[in-house]
Amino acid sequence: LRSKTNDIPIGLRSEIVALHNAGKGYRLISKTLQIPDCTVRNIVRKWKRFNTVASLSWTMKHIERTQGTE
Q1: Which of the chain's ends, N or C, has fewer CB atoms near its CB within 10 Å?
Q2: What is the number of alpha carbons within 13 Å of residue 18 lying toward its C-beta?
């Protein structure tokens, strides 16, 4: 099992998003790919917010957060 999202390859993150879009739940995706369900949830949440599965730098996250509050 992996402890950090950055350790998960982009291809696997894309597969998680594809399974989610196909209507699969977090737990089913988690069991299928043997990744913790909280990690799956965080990847999908990030994809919904930033529309990307790539790792974002802290600066990009901060810019997105401040633009959303203005």
Answers
A1: C
A2: 7
